[in-house]
Structure formats: structure tokens, C-alpha cells
Specification:
Blueprint: H1 14-54, E1 58-60, E2 75-79, E3 89-94, E4 97-105, E5 110-113, E6 119-121, E7 124-125, E8 145-146, E9 151-155, E10 173-174, E11 178-187, E12 193-194
Length: 196
Amino acid sequence: MIQKIPEPVGIPSEEEVAAERERLQYRKRYRQTLRTTIYALIVVAAVAVLLSTMFLPVLEVSGSSMEPTLEDGDIIVLIKTGEFETGDLIGFYYQNKLLLKRVIAGPGDTVDIDEDGNVYVNDVLLDEPYLTEKALGESDRDYPVQVPEDRYFVMGDNRTTSIDSRSTAIGYIEEDQIVGKVVLRVWPFDRLSLIG
């Protein structure tokens, strides 16, 4: 049997050693930078999710009940708060859906709506510049009505199609149903605006 003689191993030059050391250091820095970036993105994502669930829910409008103020596909930001005034847009849960409507009257207020769609709160005609058309809409209530304590009377801006507190199916909104108040439209960008 013939044995193969190993070829002599050459000793690398100083330049080759320096180049290899630089390559290994670059690889180590690259991995550290990549790891740090991934950790930072995870932290930012976690903070964003926490903020959006706890303080500033973000949601997409679905449907036409709030037109012309909000249109189907608009993306809006809500702020969690416990204080609502007449005219505020709010998001609230109803049968596992999040609905958007406008606060018309608060706890203890009296609401009256005539056949032409004029809304009176505590015998005062409500100024509603956000409407393009007044209508009684779908209502199965006898007016005037008094809003119970800890509840709100809400209506959509598109009065002919909106199902809201005028219908006993939805009724008065309890405070614990309310997610928050609409404060900002962020999409589409050409309609970016503060709401309320």
C-alpha cells in the first residue's frame, strides 16, 4: 500500500491573518447588530400593541352609518376616556361588534325626535352641523324618552340607514360598553383630521 504524503501546510501571511480576523469580527458585529435590531423591533411592537389595546385603540370603519363624517374604510384612533359630551363620536361594543355612533344625550336627559328628524334634547333643538340630511330613520320608540342613569342615547350621522338608540334593538348604551372616543382619522392620508 502506498501512503500519500501530506502536502506542507503553508503558514498564512500577516495580511491573511488580519483579513481573517477582520472577517470574523465583522460577522460577530453583524450578528450583534441583527440581534439588537430584532429585540428592539419586538419591544416596539409589544409597546404598540399595549398602547393600542390599553389607551389608543385603532380600528377600521365598516359601513355607511356615520357618513359623511366617517366613510367605509377610514382608519381611526380612539382614546379611552370616561367622559362624553353631546356630539362626541364613540365606539362601543354591541353583540361582539364594535359600533361607532354620535352621543346625542347623556344620563337623565330627555330626547324628542319629530317626524322631520329634528332632535330635541331637554326641549332644546340640537344643532347638528355634521348632518347632510335629517330623518327620523328606523325608530320604534314613542318620543319623548328619558335616558336612564349610566347610559347614553346615540345616533349615526347617516340618519336614514343607521340603526342606533332610536331602535329598541340597540337601545341605550351602557358606560361599560363604551371603548372610547374617536379623536383622529389616520387613513386615508388626504382626509387625515382630528375628529370631535
